[in-house]
Amino acid sequence: MSGAKNCPETPRQRMIGMMYLVLTAMLALNVSSDILNGFTMVDNSLHTTIKSSELRNKSLYDEFTDLNKLNPGKVKEWLDKANVVRAKSDELYNYLQDFKVKIVRMADRDDANDSAYVKQIIGKDNLDKAAEYAIVEGHGKELKSKIESYKNFLVGFFANNPTKQKMYQTIFATEDSKGIPWVDATFEMMPLSAVVTILTKYQSDVRASEAEVVQYLKGQTDVKDFRVNKITALVVPNTPYVIKGGKYSAQIVLSAVDSTKTPEYYVGGSRINDKGLYEIACGRAGTFPYSGMIKLQGNDGEISTYPFKSEYVVGEPSATISNEDLNVVYRGIDNKFNISAPGIPAENVSVRVSGGTLQKGVGGRYIIRPTQDGEIAINVFAKIEGKEQRMGGGVYRVKYIPDPKSYLQYTDGGGVVRQTQDENLTKKTLLSESVSIIASYGQDELIKANFTVTSFTMVSPNGMDDTRGSKFSSKMKSYINNLEGGDYLIIKNIKAVGPDGKTRSLSPIQIQI
After folding, report:
1. Does pTM surpass 0.70?
2. How far apart are CA 407 and CA 438, in angstroms?
3. Residues 85 and 165 occupy one common structural domain
4. Domain that holds residue 375
């Protein structure tokens, strides 16, 4: 019995042992159909993600292009960079697509499908062709080089953001893993379906990264801008005091500030109060120049410095002219002014306007209406000791009043009149007699002016229906009555005339039923 262990195997035993080894090898090489189906599901999901990313990217590029049309000086630099991102992304994306198509053709031959979807691949479990194309023919190294180049290109946009750099370095990592080169780890003895899914994943990463970088570039168009929530009209005179025979001139500006950020104000090297109010006792006559700076932190964290210089004059009383409402005068409306000569009774002050009409009120208040374009001149005279003396004056720019916005006005169920540019409304509301198209400055109006809508166009299945006035025509109401829930009502080509007589074209209105 002890010598039985050294007995040679029979031919039958050797055959069984060999079959076991072959079976073990086959099992090792065989890829489960469940796993292959899993790759199919992942690949399908990635293609859906890619489509969503491409739609988002198209919207971003369209918005970018529209911004550039409005302000090319501000936007073009960043749009050009975004177009480079698009070209680089398309280059890598298309190379990945071509890579997939070629390995699928090698495996499926005449039955290959150029779309390279895993679900359409016949030889999903093929373990040779991907490695043959990538490793033997050397295309894997070329792919690695292109991925690394794209990764470095993205990282270059975020030189001051280590987190973003690390993110892209991780997403597009091509380093060796545990001593195994990236090309070998990705393609050697890998099922064809797995390789195609991996390449589709890279395509998805390319589109997602493209969207993120373009969004970042779009944001850079106004990163240096300040957000403002308070607007004030200011008149900055070249000199605040005019004597007889002199000339008054002033720079009219619109001051916009962010009340949530406090600038630092400095005059002569010394910081003054946070409201920017500079006060000094005036004990002697003369001209006193001064200079300083304003410091303000921007949205990007950088502090910007704005130097200024001015002067003030201490002397005899002067005339004061101030437009109560605006920094310019508008045609077609009443421009309210407060005009006085300090130390002189209002009844002894007279005002003359060149290029406009004047209506005197009480307490030094006047209403001025320009009658010409360009500029109007306002001159103030005072009756002193029985003689009329010029106390000062100013030149004001004349502008047409700003364009209003278009609204659909209606009365809700509670009897409240409402205005909208984009809202969900019922057909019953739209067909009521209270509905009309109006033009106004809305609740945030800086000036008061009445506008009349003279015509508009409604988009319908027949093309476009035009009407005069501000009400829906019977034909338009018939079209509205045939709309269903979820349909859109688009009103465009809206024309309105303001008190200055100018006809304006206003933005469209979109209502969903």
Report:
1. no
2. 5
3. yes
4. 318-400
